[in-house]
Amino acid sequence: ESMPTVRLCILSVDYVLDEEKKPVIRIWGKTKDGKSVVVFDHSFEPYFYVEPREGLSLEQLGELSRRIESLDLEGEKPIKVELTDQRYLGIPKRVFRVCVKTPADVPRFRDLLKEWSDVKEEYEYAVSFYKRYLIDRGLVPMEWMDATGRAVKTNLRVDRAIEAEGIKPVNEEKLPPLRILAFDIETSESAEGENVIMISLVDNKKFSRVLTYGGKRRKGVEVLADENSLLERFVRLVNERDPDIVLGYNTDRFDFVKLDARAEALKVRLDISRDNSRVEF
User: Fold this and answer.
1) Do the Cβ atoms of 178 and 36 come closer than 8 Å?
2) Which uninterrupted H or E stretch holds 129?
3) CA-based Rg of the chain, rounded to a whole angstrom?
4) Model pLDDT for residues 52-86, shown as the tens digit of each residue
5) Among 119, 39, 29, 142, which residue's Cα sits nearest to residue 71?
6) CA 89 to CA 219: how far, in whole Å?
7) Is residue 10 classed as helix, strand or coil in its secondary structure?
8) pLDDT, tens digit (0-9, with 9 covering 90-100), for 230-278
9) Per DSSP, what are the bridge partners of residue 276?
10) pTM of the model
């Protein structure tokens, strides 16, 4: 039985660990008809490369491979070690590809191996896991891909979720319809520090709103009871508008930082994501 294929424009890629602590790539995207999609790929393993010291015989290379395979870090061992040919700065090199269980294991095993006398160099241990995936699969954010697999149920805020059996990049010229939301905050000094006193939001679907408290109600302005209610209403509105892209001026260095600090102080969950997680810095 053939599995359905879904074409999506890639908006973002990240990963989570499953129940067995193995990484699962999540590709977040949008279809041509504006449906939000997440694609799960369990097939990708974290890895890095190890270059043996020059002059080792085949027997010594085999022994080095077995030693790497037998490494034990708090009960975790490399999944596999294979000899492969790579090019670095145009120079061909014979290196070991060391596959490990989790992305966090890559620097840990590398730190052990870099001290070995029969190891000359290590490569690609600092490449982020999701970037490694994109490079190896030939995928580019804001370009298109086909995901073949079965639909699965999920508690994520998406229209479709797919367990991928096959993934490939495809060429499409036009971007899908995207929901884009911009916001800005205003703050004021008080005895307890800097408070958020106003938040404005606007999107490309003719929505605009100003949130504040302690002022007069007027057209396009919602007056809430207090700062706590202001933050809760902001979270609710962002989730209702369900943007694909959030914009702002200096937002990462100011607005989100202030929102995070005030939300934590007031015990408000800053949950404006499609995976039900709070904002992280």
Assistant:
1) no
2) helix 129-137
3) 24
4) 999 999 999 999 999 999 999 988 999 999 999 99
5) 119
6) 61
7) strand
8) 999 999 999 999 999 999 999 999 999 999 999 999 999 999 999 988 8
9) none
10) 0.89
